[in-house]
């Protein structure tokens, strides 16, 4: 059995808000996907932003750590951020494979000596478009199975602005240089994506509604009703992906986003290429 530590990047308020619009927390979303990809996995859900968080299992006895997205900002600091940075550092120094999307990437880059902050090119809301491998990403196992260019769910203002020394930048697009990254610290290896391979389109829609003001201010939608209509289309496409080719065409959503197995490639690659080999050795 695999023992996977799934850390929710949100503080208590962020978890409650996410739960209210998605009917599950970010950690619960990840746990469901991890169990689907690895039926032998036991997921231990934790909330490291909380002061009273206690690990249910010692780090050396875990096979991996996964850190979810978050509404927090690394640059703002504070105990909720510091506690998550400490967990990330401890996990990597203990030799664990670590995966993170969005917030997880920003935390990993920060503790390894990089910098995360507001993306000077602006936010990505809904989908990150035309992601492609860098030279360092060509042949990297995190991106196995991805085509030469792909889209992926994305919701972020912040990003890795300065990668840490020695990091391998694996993929980027015209909005952001760091869409996928490998970071090594101690005996541990971090693989992560700024985009969200874990999110279904109905969750993207729900998160867009929460971010409506930011989407409008970024000039991506003229007003809140337009954003609501776009979110409704994403939701409807999620519920009937084969029956609504009109929506897929209008929204520019391809199979790399629509098909769960393809959308979640990076998570599956992480399990197959890093977690299982280490678990077998352990």
Automatic annotation (TrEMBL):
PROSITE patterns: GATASE_TYPE_1. One of its GO terms (molecular function) is transferase activity. One of its GO terms (cellular component) is cytosol. Keywords: Glutamine amidotransferase, Transferase. The keyword Amino-acid biosynthesis does not apply. Gene3D superfamilies: 3.40.50.880. Residues 59-203 form the Glutamine amidotransferase domain. It holds the Pfam family GATase. The keyword S-adenosyl-L-methionine does not apply. PANTHER family: GLUTAMINE AMIDOTRANSFERASE YLR126C-RELATED. This is Type 1 glutamine amidotransferase.
